[in-house]
Design a protein that fits this description.
By secondary structure, the chain is α/β, with parallel strands linked by helices. Helix content is 31%, strand content 20%. It folds into two domains: 192 residues, 3-Layer(aba) Sandwich (Rossmann fold), CATH 3.40.50.720; 196 residues, Dihydrodipicolinate Reductase, domain 2, CATH 3.30.360.10. Helix 3 links the parallel strand 2 and strand 3. The longest helix has 20 residues.
């Protein structure tokens, strides 16, 4: 991607991040723990014990030579559940992830917290000499994502983002077909996430947090606010903790689009959205959202292409609820987790709409765990052999950026132009200020 001096200086010196670090801060040396060899058992720690975190840990445990040795969560009930599932009392349990990172016998960690806690544990784990499997989205701001990439490179750690589709055979086949030119010249890709959340998430009043939850620690670098059930349970839908489905789900999509078309970043973004479906609610991101990204020329779309993204929360009546479609001059391809279908445009002796090829997902039993296991196997192999994974942190960062750019465009109410080299919004200080979120002291975004 070239020189990152401007963004690194921004991360290191901007007033947008707090000046202080946590009390009694630790300083971790690069390579503080030796990396496991090809035949060694990899000891894993889990940071974030929600349902997805426990599933990812279970998937790793199904892989030969991987062992769960520690779990951590600020919710004591979730932590106890994860500990029991991971192996019981022999598994260490921590309230504070920094204490988990102090253990030199932990080789790698799974960061499966909610989104606004993905980056700091990733950075601190790299500093502690641990490799990291971090759930998507990589970050709640573009600047945070860049900091995670810089940490992985500075401390020479393997960091893989949890976009498991990258390790699925039918996605690999689909990308090969697109890159081989079977669709022709691609001018547009449509991406969508449709869910049925009607009538919405309601508007519960602020109240005391449940006794098992350390609410202040959960908030962490985000602003201090009273506990609200929706902020905790529906954190994806609040500005400080997530980016709605256009970030938190669609990272899966954008990574596949970038991979298939050989591109890294859009040139501009625009978006519209509003509350057009839900009953009164306290969430902040809209229930109906559409955005457009303009990409420049690449090896497949030689004139560039448009990526159109749509989310709606009140109706999912489509052929597929979470999918993407590549439109080419020769054929189109609809691709999702069930498989893909290539349909003819009507050239070369084929009829318009004729099905050229259909491929189904090979994961037919226990689909979720088996698909996670495929991705875990890639991560563990890279840890053992010190290789950079296909779903590397840089790839994850670039796949998280498109959703953030559309959200920035929506928040400022205009099209934004993106300088991908320096990772800043061009000629728009208000929009550029949203590239990196402010941190609440004593937390600091520091590599």
């Amino acid at each position: 991607m070239g020189n990152r001096t401007s963004r690194r200086q921004f991360l290191g010196h901007s007033a947008a991040v707090a000046a202080a670090t946590w009390a009694g801060a630790r300083t971790y040396a690069a390579g503080a723990a030796p990396s496991p060899g090809p035949n060694d058992t990899i000891n894993l720690g889990l940071i974030g014990c929600g349902g997805e975190g426990r599933a990812v840990l279970r998937a790793h445990q199904l892989c030969p030579g991987a062992r769960a040795v520690a779990v951590c969560d600020v919710n004591a009930r979730r932590m106890a559940q994860a500990r029991q599932e991971a192996g019981g009392q022999k598994v260490l349990a921590f309230h504070d992830y920094r204490k988990l990172l102090d253990h030199s016998d932990i080789d790698a960690v799974i960061v499966a917290t909610n989104g606004h806690w993905h980056v700091l544990p990733t950075i601190h784990a790299c500093q502690a000499g641990k490799d990291v499997y971090v759930e998507k989205p990589l970050a709640t701001s573009i600047g945070e994502g860049r900091a995670a990439v810089e940490a992985a490179r500075k401390y020479d750690r393997v960091v893989q983002i949890g976009t498991q589709q990258r390790s699925w055979p039918h996605y690999q086949q689909a990308v090969e077909a697109i890159r081989a030119g079977r669709l022709g010249e691609i001018s547009e890709v449509k991406v969508w996430d449709y869910d049925y959340f009607y009538p919405g998430f309601g508007n519960p009043p602020d109240c005391d947090p449940p006794p098992e939850l350390d609410w202040d620690f959960w908030l962490g670098p985000s602003p201090k606010v009273p506990y609200n059930p929706n902020r905790y349970i529906r954190h994806y839908w609040f500005f400080d903790y997530g980016g709605a489905w256009q970030v938190d789900w669609a990272v899966h999509h954008y990574q596949i689009v970038h991979w298939a078309l050989g591109v890294e970043a859009p040139r501009s973004a625009t978006a519209m959205g509003d509350f057009l479906c839900f009953e009164p609610t306290n969430i902040e991101w809209p229930d109906t959202f559409s955005g457009i990204l303009r990409y420049g020329p690449g090896p497949v779309a030689r004139k560039g292409f448009l990526l159109q993204y749509t989310f709606r929360g009140g109706c999912r009546r489509e052929q597929r609820s979470h999918a993407k479609c590549f439109f080419g001059t020769e054929a189109s391809m609809i691709l999702d987790r069930s498989g893909y279908t290539i349909t003819a445009e009507g050239r070369g002796g084929r009829q318009f709409g004729e099905t050229i090829e259909t491929v189904r997902n090979v994961f037919t039993e226990s689909v979720h765990i088996q698909s996670l296991k495929a991705h875990a196997e890639v991560f563990l192999d890279c840890v053992r052999n010190r290789k950079r994974p296909p779903a590397d942190v840089q790839v994850g960062h670039l796949a998280t950026t498109p959703g953030h750019l559309m959200n920035i465009a929506w928040r400022v109410g205009r099209t934004v132009r993106w300088d991908a080299e320096n990772e800043r919004v061009i000629d728009d200080p208000e929009a550029d200020a949203l590239v990196t979120k402010k941190y609440r002291p004593p937390w600091e975004l520091k590599v």
